[in-house]
Amino acid sequence: MRSSPATFAYAAVALFVIAMAVTITQAPPATFSGPPPPVVVVMAIAFAAFHLSLLPVVAALYAPAWAKGSGYAWIVVDNVLVFMSYFGVGADLIVPMRWGVHLATATWIAGASSHAPGAMRWVGWGAALAFVAASFAGPFVGVATAGQTLGPAAVLLIIWLVMAGRRLSS
Predict the structure, then answer these.
(1) CB-based contact 138:149 (threshold 8 Å)
(2) Which has the minimum average pLDDT: 40-44, 73-77, 89-93?
């Protein structure tokens, strides 16, 4: 049986929800020395798998080449940041870089949404705007609370990926 990009979109949703649930409920340490704590291992695996599951989704959704390039850049750079966290690199370095790469996330979602019909277009544009707003709000709220600014973007991303999965399955 051949896996479809829609299956990967749904898998991405599940993995993202798992990763966020672990992050929110277990409060992984901002930095550590030595081997990563179990919560960091689970979080790193879930986030890395989430990003990698998006590769077929970026490839399959119609979007201009510049938008697809942004999607691929987000996946690659955010996975590098996941592994920097896995190795104990501090949040003071990781968070600004992650919020910066979320601008590539916004560019991919906006580009792919510009060719999507109906609600997927509006949810995508809302998600893109929420990612941009969170990125620019980061310095004003500080590293410790910057993650909270991603709440609206995360919810809209989940909805948008479900819509993308439905679109890719039809």
Answers:
(1) yes
(2) 89-93
**SS (HEC) of the chain:** CCCCHHHHHHHHHHHHHHHHHHHHHHCCCCCCCCCCCHHHHHHHHHHHHHHHHCHHHHHHCCCCHHHHHHHHHHHHHHHHHHHHHHCCCCHHHHHHHHHHHHHHHHHHHHHHHCCCCHHHHHHHHHHHHHHHHHHHHHHHHCCCCHHHHHHHHHHHHHHHHHHHHHHHHC
What is the distance between the alpha carbons of residues 122 and 124, in angstroms, rounded to a whole number? 5
**What pTM was computed for the model?**
0.93
Tokens 């997927």, residue located: 120
The whole-angstrom distance between residue 110's C-alpha and the CA centroid of its chain comes to 14
Q: Where are the domains of the chain?
A: 5-169
Summarize the confidence of residues 32-54 as an average pLDDT.
95
Q: pLDDT of 15-26, one tens digit each? A: 999 999 998 899
